[in-house]
Amino acid sequence: MKEKTMLCLTRSLPQYFIKTGLFATLLVGTLLFVSCKQEQQEQSDPVIPVSTVTMKTGTVTLYSELPGRVSALLLAEIRPQVNGILLKRHFIEGAEVKEGDLLYEIDPAPYQAAVANAEAAVSLAKAQQAGARANSSRANAGLVNAESLLKVAEAGLESSRATVTAAETALAAAIAGLDSAQANVEPLLLRQERFKELLESKAISQQDYDDVDAACRKAQAAITVSQARVDGAKADLARAEAGLKVAIAEVDRAKAGLVASQAELEAAAAGEESAKAAVQSATAGLAAARINLDYTRITAPISGRIGKSNITVGALVSAHQPVPLARIQQIDKVYVDVPQATADMLKLQRRLQDGRLSHNGTQHVVKLNLEDGKPYSQNGSLQFKDISVDPSTGTYNLRMQFPNPDRILLPGMFVRALIEEGVKEEAILLPQSCVSRDARGNPTVFVVDSDETAQVRSLTLDRGIQDKWLVSSGLSAGDRVIIEGLQRLRPGLKVRETPAIAPGNNSKQLD
Q1: What is the pLDDT of the chain when averaged over all its residues?
Q2: Do 156 and 265 belong to one domain?
Q3: Which pTM value belongs to this model?
Q4: By mean pLDDT, which of 83-92, 279-288, 452-461 is the weakest?
Q5: What's the pLDDT at 24?
Q6: Which domain holds residue 334?
Q7: Could you give the CA distance from residue 71 to residue 222 in angstroms, rounded to a whole number?
Q8: SS3 for 344-401, per residue?
Q9: Using only C-alpha atoms, what is the Rg of the chain?
């Protein structure tokens, strides 16, 4: 300051003052006057040098950081499904195994014997089934024969009925002939009596009488013949009726034989069905025996990394025992399960509905921080949100899936998931170092107003993003916030800006 004053005085004084001796006296007096004046001004109204940062708006992606645990994508607990002595172990603990790889062998001898027994049972059942089929064929043939006999008997019955009908007709004709002959002989007998009386009185000739007598004898002979025919017809009718009874008896016997054949066929069919069921049962037993034999070779159900073996060779294992032989975990991809408070979810929904946040199309992309605080190199995806809320904690579970090609994430590891909430447009990020608290604990900052005076501004802060605060209210774009020189500041003091510290890129949240 003194150098500037001296330079001004030197330029403004006439050259003759320089040449004279009065120049030194004037210069000293002027310097003393200016110095005193400046000290008085600084003591009465000091100007504080400060550094400021000008607030700018930008787009910030907001994340929720939630604690969670890693779990395997697939987990298989290897347990025996049959009882027996463990003979061999075919894997190295901690190694990678593939689906279908042989892991353990159980003594197969008793199960091989069971398979042989089941095979014999199947053979026996098939033989019995063949016998049942033969019986069924014989019964079917007997049924056909019985049906044929019944048809023959029925045909004989019809023939006997026709014979009876014919005999009845013949008897009726013979009776009619006998009646006619008897009717013809009566007038001839009367005529014979009259001619006999006339012959005695010589009224007629002997020839006339002989003719009448011959006619009478002929009519009587016709009666005898007709009677013989009636008797023969009756005998024929009796024989026909006896034949009819025999035919009826034959039909009844044929029907009884048919019923017996049908019953035999039904019994044979039932025996065949029983034999078929026995074959199926024996086949199922054989399949079960083979399955149990296959279970003596314990294979890997999934591909993954196998842990330690809990059972040693020579130990007795039992089916579905509570202690697994080993565990296989597939961790080339892993799940991360985290709980989220329902209050946070409702708050986020309201902010999205109000327009304070918006989605950018990547809501299902999640990030991860490891136990040491370092970010995980692979991004994950949000799989689903549970629809049930735990009433004891007021949280619901989120499940995320992360690729794990380098096996960095291990089941049970504690991590922190960064779940994208949304994008805040025109966000203001403020360095945390310039924020102080008032007596009530409310956040405040010093800003420089238009007349270069420091003023206190109360803030509402949303959250911390690394070394910055996300400001909800209290600051606007263009506000100059004091970040250095805060020690001597008081509201209303004049300030003088020094070169501002670059605020950094606040257009996005740093990971």
Answers
A1: 82
A2: yes
A3: 0.56
A4: 452-461
A5: 47
A6: 51-67+327-498
A7: 126
A8: HHHHHHHHHHHCCCECCCCCCEEEEECCCCCECCCCEEEEEECCCCECCCCEEEEEEE
A9: 64
